[in-house]
Design a protein that fits this description.
Layout lengths: L5 E5 L1 H12 L7 E5 L1 H5 L3 H10 L4 E4 L2 H9 L6 E3 L8 H7 L1 E5 L2 H14 L3 E6 L11 H9 L7 E7 L11 H17 L7 E3 L3 H6 L7 E4 L22 E13 L4 E2 L5 E2 L4 E6 L16 E4 L2 E6 L7 E4 L11 E8 L2 E3 L1 H8 L3 H6 L7 E3 L1
Parallel strand pairs: 1-19, 2-3, 2-9, 3-4, 4-5, 5-6, 6-7, 7-8
Antiparallel strand pairs: 1-10, 10-13, 10-17, 11-12, 13-16, 14-15, 14-17, 15-16, 17-18
Helix pairs in contact: 1-3
């Protein structure tokens, strides 16, 4: 049962539409991975992934071992790749839950080898190459050492090789192409001794923006949710934003001119004003930095935020909205009567990225799937 008049509508049909758009951009023989880390970028990993599987996705990608276990406990059976790092406490989960780890360093390889040897297991791994991200991955020197002494890792099977683009969403290919070159050079070294099944470089932006990234596994992250990786794409696909963030007006008040509103008195009414209190705040992921700087939609009009956003509420000036009433619907992200507010628009106001906007919408906001 839903008690709050604030919730996130997640359109699963939009998820399917977006996946189909990317499916058209990759080779027919290739597979798609749905990246559902951070609870599906705030959309809800389990419902999104189940729909993505219906749409033909055959891999899932997560950042944390806890995320992978949650998927398995929900009945997800497709391969799950743990894209992030892991600690020794996670080792038993790889075999118990059938999770494929990414090995990104000599230390991570040794830890996994020691565990697999003790348990008399052979574990399939994907190895990650650092081609320019500078975050996780084998550099050229450590990769050579790993491969040269691979007899010391006889309980590991290299089933995949991957890298990650740092700048595929910038509209200029030059650095990404340098990453492709480094990856192909390293891949040829791996293939001297091993026969990995899966080769993957491309994230969402890399699928359409970087030529020559023709592996056989493509990782669709932010684009699956209808969010463009950036505004600089040369070859954008037609996406549908999957979320609509709705709230309700819980009180209306008439104020004369020169009345301070909310904490800190950062806003004073400039005229007799009708002010609406909305039942969402920064504890829900609605940034306090939107105070006095952004807007919402009420009855098909953009109305400004006035005063500081509070933990559980914020205020809108609805003076110019005819007929406004308590319980009226407020759109924070989404469309209403031909107007829209996108996560990207909010991100631009906050000088961040749309990824952060959707990921920060808190668990206090129920998700409803349509």
């Amino acid at each position: 049962m839903r008690y709050r008049r604030a919730y996130l509508e997640v359109s699963l049909s939009a998820i399917v539409h977006n996946l189909r758009q990317y499916r058209q951009e990759i080779p027919e023989h290739a597979a798609m991975m749905a990246v559902v880390k951070a609870d599906g970028y705030g959309h809800g990993a389990i419902p999104v992934l189940k729909k993505a599987i219906e749409a033909g996705v055959t891999w899932a990608g997560v950042a944390l071992i806890e995320e992978a276990i949650e998927l398995r406990n929900a009945g997800i059976e497709i391969p799950i790749l743990l894209l992030g790092s892991w600690f020794p406490e996670a080792l038993p989960a790889f075999s118990q839950y059938g999770i494929t780890p990414v090995v990104h360093s000599l230390d991570s390889a040794q830890g996994l080898q020691d565990y697999a040897k003790r348990q008399n297991l052979r574990i399939k791994i994907h190895i990650k190459l650092d081609t320019g991200m500078g975050r996780l991955g084998f550099c050229e020197k450590s990769l050579v050492e790993f491969l040269t002494h691979f007899s010391n890792y006889d309980h590991l099977i290299i089933d995949g090789v991957m890298t990650h683009f740092s700048s595929a969403d910038e509209g200029v290919e030059s650095f990404s192409q340098e990453q492709v070159r480094k990856f192909n050079q390293a891949l040829s070294l791996v293939k001297r001794w091993h026969h990995p099944t899966w080769i993957h470089l491309a994230n969402t932006a890399g699928i359409t923006e970087v030529s020559g990234t023709r592996g056989n596994l493509f990782r669709v992250g932010i684009g699956m949710y209808g969010q463009p990786p950036s505004a600089c794409l040369v070859n954008p696909v037609q996406l549908r934003e999957a979320i609509t963030w709705k709230a309700g007006i819980i009180q209306l008040q008439q104020h004369p001119a020169h009345v301070p509103l909310s904490y800190g008195r950062t806003f004073y009414t400039q005229r007799p004003s009708q002010i609406a209190t909305v039942c969402v705040g920064y504890a829900d992921g609605y940034s306090r930095r939107l105070s006095n700087e952004f807007y919402a939609l009420v009855r098909g009009q953009k109305v400004p935020i006035v005063g500081n956003v509070c933990m559980d509420m914020f205020l809108l000036d609805v003076t110019n909205v005819p007929g406004v009433e308590v319980n009226d619907e407020v759109i924070l992200i989404g469309q209403q009567q031909g107007l829209s507010i996108t996560a990207s628009e909010m991100a631009e106001q906050l000088q961040t990225i749309n990824y952060e906007i959707t990921c920060r919408i808190s668990k206090r906001i129920p998700r409803i799937y349509t």
